[in-house]
Amino acid sequence: MPINIPKQMPAREVLEKEKIFVMDEERASTQDIRPLNILILNLMPEKEKTEVQLLRLLGNSPLQVNITFLHMETHQSKNVSKSHLEQFYKTYSSVKNYYFDGMIITGAPIEHLAFEDVNYWEELTKIMEWTNDHVTSVMHICWGAQAALYHHYGIGKFELPCKCSGIYKHTINDQTIKLVRGFDEVYFAPHSRYTSVSRKEILEHPNLLLLSEGEAGPFIIISKDEKHIMVTGHLEYDTDTLAIEYERDLKKGLDIQMPENYFPNDNAGEQPINMWRSHSHLLFSNWLNYYVYQETPYEQDRKVKVDVPAPEEHK
């Protein structure tokens, strides 16, 4: 089944070219189906790229999915137009009275800051608290995962000697957990971050399960009540995302190492090979099925789709 996004959203054209089933609200309203309402808090600077990456994965499911994008009210985004945010995004104050089946909180390139020094940290903590009784299941990605571990479970982050960037091998600690159903015993995933979290603190926490780990440290952490899923890497990344980040950092003059296990023959002139695509789709489809669809109540009185205003309503 399709994902439901506005007709004018730029990501729509990209997804349709990839033959991903995208539906607009007019057509979706004619189907007698209870769709899943998913909220995405997009903290990444290049929001349109992240939109495509996440929508591609959420669209690979037999479920109909309504998407609402959220941006921070207390932060001015520099890499996306104001009109794009006004047309396709909501703010916390406009959704706080609604209930959602699932939510994704993305990463953000701000690991060098203490959590309390992030200019939207107070707003983010309000949102994370709100999810406890307004969202069935929340997936947190990279810095979003570190923020969740800190806020919900008191586990901080620590700085790495150098940036963790590349494609790393991972294993599963418990194959019986539904989130990794169908995963290979060894699989690969991209990481891109300057900080990490303590394996020891996760293992010792009574409310957490370290589900998967590998060469880059703890990778998938899940709360034992299955409310929160923390993914410290970027399974949603495109094949060339790490290459783009590497080139960007070089242009900034940063002392940066080439992403590990990424470019063939460690030659930045060669095209990287995607070794994580199937597990990306599997993770998101398992999350949607087992942690959102199977767990969310059917009643729609508390599960209302937040309509994104049409462009003319902003005129």
UniProtKB/TrEMBL annotation:
EC number: 2.3.1.31
Protein name: Homoserine O-acetyltransferase
GO cellular component assignments: cytoplasm
Role played: Transfers an acetyl group from acetyl-CoA to L-homoserine, forming acetyl-L-homoserine.
Gene assigned in the entry: metA
Entry-linked Pfam families: HTS
Primary localisation category: cytoplasm
Annotated site, Important for substrate specificity, chain positions: 192
Record-linked SUPFAM superfamilies: Class I glutamine amidotransferase-like (SSF52317)
Subcellular location(s) of the protein: Cytoplasm
Pathway(s) it belongs to: Amino-acid biosynthesis; L-methionine biosynthesis via de novo pathway; O-acetyl-L-homoserine from L-homoserine: step 1/1
